[in-house]
Amino acid sequence: MCRFVAYIGAPTLIDKILINPSNSLISQSFSALESEMVVNGDGFGLGWYDKDIKEEPGLYVSVLPAWNDQNLLNNASITESSCFLAHVRAATVGSVSLENCHPFQYNEYLMMHNGGINDFDRIKQSLSALLDEEAFLWIKGQSDTQYILALFMTNARKIGIEKFPDAEILVACLNKTFADIEALKKAKGINSVSIYNMVLSNGYGLIATRYSTDPHTDSRTLYFTENVSCKLNVKGDLEFEKGKIERSAALISSEKLTQDDMFWKEIPSNHAVYINRELEVTLLKLN
Asked: What is the CATH code for 3-285?
């Protein structure tokens, strides 16, 4: 099933979000609360931005379970970022390998995915034919997510997207990408469900989609917070309070990280949440 979390806001130590919450992403790697698959131990990935150093993100991936990755546990407490994406994997499409660990980096972009394209192997060749050369050569693994990102970047170039655009243009490109894939499935007579719970970021903003081709029977949870300040209580657990400064934080997560229900909002099925660099949140419907 996979689980993920994304953060954008005031620079913070990564362990505050990944390790300290009562239902942290590390906890979800061995005991997910809102997933049919409790264990997500087929690898871990972390992508983070430091725009003072370079536009492209840092990236750390491992095939170790997140709960047993000492490099992650040791370094998260001394790594600070204003935008990062993290993912724990339960492998579906593609082997357990570094090349298949999320998030995936494409130049300054990061993408991660919870879901999948059922019967992906039956459309893989046809999907490859839709890719431009740059996107096709970028793919290094077998996961369907890499092909989705490659198709998104191909479509982005076709419609002239060069930098992270506004919400409507991003959603239009995502809609086209999902529709292209579903058209390939239809041409093969494939009626199985595809689920596209995804996060895409360039470090200045991010967009998250909660999308299923059959949301009434098969969907995945996805939540967001907006305008919160993140702090640790006396027990060392993450707590939220209403943001008191212009730039506090916003989060996207497959599961609620804390018990502060008043701060978590569920993204409606077949909608996207766009968060810009000023942390303004926009909710948009997907086709």
From this structure: 3.60.20.10
pTM higher than 0.90:
yes
For residue 242, give Cα distances in angstroms to 28, 55, 208, 237: 25, 30, 22, 17
Q: CA–CA separation, 145 vs 104, rounded Å?
A: 8
pLDDT tens readout for residues 177-211: 999 999 999 999 999 999 999 999 999 999 999 99
Q: Which candidate, 49, 7, 50, places its Cα nearest to that of 25?
A: 7
Query: Is residue 279 a contact partner of residue 249, using CB atoms and an 8 Å limit?
Result: yes
Q: What is the C-alpha separation between 205 and 90, in angstroms, rounded? A: 27
Helix segments in 52-123, DSSP class H: 70-75
State the Cα–Cα distance between residues 139 and 95, nearest whole angstrom. Answer: 14
Report the alpha-carbon distance of residue 92 to residue 94 in Å, rounded.
6
pLDDT digits over 253-271, tens only? 999 999 988 999 999 999 9
Q: Provide the residue type at 58 as one letter.
A: G
Kindly state the helix (H) or strand (E) to which residue 16 belongs, with its residue range.
Answer: helix 14-18
